[in-house]
Amino acid sequence: MPSDSALMEASLAALGDRYDGMATELFDRLIADHPHYTPVFLNPEAARERMTSETLEAMLGLAAAEPWVDLAVTNFIDLHHNYADFTAPDYAAWLALVIATMARRAGSDWPEGASAAWQRQADALTAKVATVTRNREVPVRP
Ligand code: HEM
After folding, report:
1. Could you tell which of 30, 51, 86, 126 is best to mutate to test the pocket of ligand 1, judged by most ligand atoms within 8 Å of the CB?
2. The domain that contains 76 carries what CATH number?
3. Segments in the chain below pLDDT 50
4. Cα-Cα-Cα-Cα dihedral sign, residues 128, 90, 93, 99
């Protein structure tokens, strides 16, 4: 039975250049699915590539037990307080959207078990998000 890490890496290789354009599709869907957040997406063209790649990195890092993951989670949660008070379910929905979109784009090339491997790491990442203590210096957005 391959590790989650191995399955995730193999699935990215299978996805190949069908990754191109995915950030645009993901942001269009994310914004459409969360209309109450539309005003906080001020510059999606600037954010979407980095947000997509760092999302994949966080799940890959977690699967590989990389020591930097906890700090990365704290950093992206603090960063997002510049925009809104997103919830753990918001993060879970984004991660599920990313996984489903990769699987759909890869089609029959998507390896067996890859979605489950990504989803296990997504669940673990969401659990971490839920435990990060809010930075009290940042006021809660209305
Ligand atoms: C693992 C999950 C996530 C990661 C790693 C992540 C990472 C990032 C990064 C790197 C940026 C770009 C910042 C910049 O270039 O200055 C960004 C922007 C942003 N993210 Fe996320 N993000 C995640 C989840 C979410 C979720 C769940 C939401 C809301 C439902 C969200 C909403 C936003 C918004 C509103 C922006 C600013 C967009 C704009 O300027 O138009 N993010 N994110």
Report:
1. 51
2. 1.10.490
3. none
4. negative
